[in-house]
Write the structure tokens for this entry.
Amino acid sequence: MYRLMVVSKETIKFIENPKVKPWAISLPSDRLKEWYPYNLIRFLTGINRTPEQFLTDIETDRKQTSITTKTFLGSLESKAVARVMLSAVKSFTSFYESDLPLNGLKIRVKRVRKKPYLSWDDTEKIIVEAKEPYRSIYRFLLWGGIGLDEFSEIQESTEIQTSIELQRNNEKPYIRIDLEPRKSNLDTYFTLIPKQYVPKFPFRTADYGNRGGQMIEAVDIQLNWQRARKRAGIDQVGLGPHTLRSVFSSECAKAGVAEAVAEYQMGHGAGDTYGYRREVLDESYAATELSKLWTSTTPATTTELEELRKRVADLENKTPTVVGHDAGRAMSAVSFNAEKRIQELIARIETLERERKG
């Protein structure tokens, strides 16, 4: 008999089981002879079975036993423990040539951090703080419920860009953007976005001397989002551009948009939860449903104007007043930057007011 490392009396007794002992002896190293039986007994205790019962279950109902095993292992909070336990179970069943399929097991751990939540109003606060062209990009992603992959597809496709521009002057209040299906159970995928929120593609970075002018990529969008988020004072861990999709989904639910339509617009496909729903592929039906969102949500210009005016007022209250003929030189770098920011915001306000009137 091999010399056991430090293990519990319960494990030593477990190893003496007629079904366990031959398997334990066959293990190639002392380390495995310690850990595999220890983890196997923890597993069998968890599913309330003996080694004999477990092997019998495999023979009588292999599928259900596989489901039970995966469910138990997937419920463990530690991925490391679950993987070692999985290896022990595979080793034990292989020794007895019991065919128990365990491939495709997804080890899930308990969420230790709450999923970030962003309201539509807070989203607008962040977007307002972004500079162009990123402000237009974020608003486009928000109203379309699409992600950075879809944005990149549009950026790289002159065909999609041409289709967008051809729809600018038609009678519809939205633009249909056809993209590659994200799900194998669909042949068609499109998203409908109000015209005023569909910018002109492609987007390029600003020119700085001999650099810039490059195609804007996902990393640029993520970096500028974080900067705008910090300026807006909304500091939640995990709030990235992808959160805009969650905001779109939540707002659709509030507006009463059919859930299947909202999911399809986000590229989740009509077969994820609802089965095949042919009506979501009907452009007229989708537009009718989405119009509930378009008509119930505060126009971006109105929200942005309110936020911009608040920003100006806040900056003016925080900016120190300097008097005297040396005021220009005496003004600190902080106050100078604040004055510059105020002028930028005022210019943006004037532009938006002209757009609303026009």
